[in-house]
Amino acid sequence: MTIITMMICQPQLSLPQIPTRGLDLPVIQCRPQKEKVVVIMGVTGTGKSRLSIDLAGCYPAEVINSDKMQVYEGLDIATNKITEDECTGVPHHLLGIVDPEKDFTAENFVATASLAMKSIVGRGKLPIIAGGSNSFIEALIDDRNYEFRSRYDVCLLWTDVAMPVLHRFVSDRVDRMVSAGLVEEVRKFYKPNSDYTKGIRRAIGVPEFDSYFRAEFSSSGDKKYRDKLLEQAINEIKINNCKLACRQLKKIQRLRNEKGWDIHRIDATACFQNSGEKSDELWSEMVAGPGLVIVNQFMLN
Ligand code: ATP
Question: Residue 192 belongs to a domain with what CATH number?
């Protein structure tokens, strides 16, 4: 097993006094060996989940979700949660476990993710944290007492895709979500006069439908009018996803350039410019392969 979870020695243990027959033995300072954690960052739609599963295929690992909307139960299509099939048996934590009406804060994330990391490491596995919520990752890694950094060595990976290419991809993804039942899924969550600043209702794909569902609910306007509202909502979702991607990119660049985080950038653009087998080939060659090389090196250090 590649993961070394044992402590080299435990300085907090009080050792029995061994007679040294007058020898003046040097005192060796031992520090517990740090555990390893991999974090996969990247803006929405760049393949973080896919890479986490690829890595988990090479190391015994479990994934901790760090997307602030995917932590909630429900709206699986709107929040683009990984499916059970896509998980391929790799255990996932913090995915769809929070009451959608409640707020889940960065502090809640730090506490829950820390417990999950401990239990994963306790099972002799590698924790892989994957998700787009950079405020969660920052709160976890740069906690006030630097507790995370004193316990864990972290390998930061970043799946990056050129923005114009990604904008097209996330817009097309919204169309695929609609075909997969996005409107029906969000309609079930609709309540007149909802508070869109709380819980899962903040997710892109929820507030945008308000005017459409309101018209449906109150039977106002004719079908043509409502179809127009639906079209507008879908367009807004596309625009908001593109805006989210731009904001998330700036946050990653800030962590890298201003905070000096050692983030390994992996360029996945070519995979998104191709489709089918060619895209899969490029993914193995340009994303999964290099990602694994970085993680292998990290695990050996
Ligand atoms: P912020 O401080 O702006 O909330 P963050 O780094 O904490 O940023 P992000 O993941 O960038 O978190 O999420 C920002 C917003 O983007 C969320 O509040 C939500 O509206 C939307 N969002 C994020 N992830 C998703 C998702 N999976 N599905 C739908 N909307 C999402």
Answer: 1.10.287.890
